[in-house]
Amino acid sequence: MPLDIVRGAQMSFDMSGTAIQRVSGLIQIDFSIGNEYQVNYPLNLGSLITQTGTLTADDQNGNGGISAGETIDHDNTNIPILDTIPDLSNATVLGVGYMGGIVSGLVVRYPVILVASGSIQYLIYPEGPPDLLTQITGTVNTTLHFYANAQYYPGGGVPCFAGGTRIRTRRGEIAVEALRVGDSVLTVDDGYQPIRWIGSRHLSSGDLAMSPQLRPIRIRSGALGAGVPEVDLVVSPQHRVLVQAAVAERMFGEAEVLVAAKHLLALDGVEIAEAMAGVTYWHILFDGHQLVFSGGAVTESLYSGSEALKSVSAAARDEIFALFPQLAAGVRPSPARPLVPGRQAARLAERIALNGKALVR
After folding, report:
1. Fewer Cβ atoms within 10 Å of its own Cβ: the N or the C terminal residue of the chain?
2. Per-residue model confidence as pLDDT tens digits over 183-206
């Protein structure tokens, strides 16, 4: 779901591929007995309608996510006779969570947002869900899970390190959470470079359950090559890792490329860190995009492209724009290495896994 966050409190994103359905009756969310509310919901697959147009969310708390109590507007550009979902104006977000169920024998879990427009409620599935939409008719039993203080973060989250990751600096190997602005970090291309900005965001167990696409990726020691990384490395799904492999040069004409951790799951020793109850993500920004040494592996610093900037909070964007005014004007830096897009990255990992080759020299 392409997302364009406008600087300030408004977030706008393309609805293409998003599904919406009108709720039959009303869902009354009650957190009086705990932080999670579950309700069984018979899902009529035929009532899911793929959307077009634009949805704008009022990010009142400035955290870069969609939260209960905030409002949204939906400008639906579908042909009305084919789409019974109306435009939504100032609809209230009642709850954020996920839908879980079994469809065609597959366990599925998709983020879901419950909104109310007047007396009518709607369920918004911001990431599809493609597996459900392949079935035109029928009803399946699902469970809706809503969490107090949960948010949906469009765009998949920002590339960052999990707390505890050790970064190579002039002072030695330092845990990322102990780094400070001005610390000199060893980079692959430009020697020691000072950190210009540090940001962090904590995701609770509820946040991760509601948005499983944000669960960290664990790269086991030695998974990328002999002794690489030196210790288990935990990063966000979007965090890119340096790949140096002959197959990369054959596929892309580049000896070194950057691949998001989530696209390396085909490799032995790379896995979703399901057991983590929560995680604090840390991102470090330099004057330019850099490659740094993290746990003995080479990974990226924060790349201040559009995807990263739209995934941080409004306050964080303001801080970054104050340091780098050119970013506010739409100027984007050059990446340290070519960035391989999703499908090609997954294919690269599959080929490397099939050949049994290391990702790094």
Report:
1. C
2. 999 999 999 999 999 988 888 887
Burial (CB count <10 Å: 0-12, 13-18, 19+), residue 25: exposed
Instruction: List helix spans (H) across 90-150.
Output: 130-133
DSSP symbol at 228: B
Beta pairing partners, 197: 285
Q: Is residue 1's pLDDT more than 50?
A: no
The pTM of this model reads 0.66
Residue 33's CB is within 10 A of a number of other CB atoms, namely 7
Per the structure block, which two tokens stand in for 125?
């599935």
Q: Are residues 250 and 196 both part of a single domain?
A: yes
- Distance in angstroms (rounded) separating the CA atoms of residues 343 and 63: 29
Identify whether residues 311 and 257 lie together within a single domain: yes
CATH of the domain at 187: 2.170.16.10
Give me the mean pLDDT over the 320-345 stretch.
85
Structure tokens at 250: 């054959």
Task: Report the C-alpha gap between 222 and 202 in whole angstroms.
Answer: 28
Which amino acid belongs to residue 326?
A: Q
Say which amino acid occupies 1: M
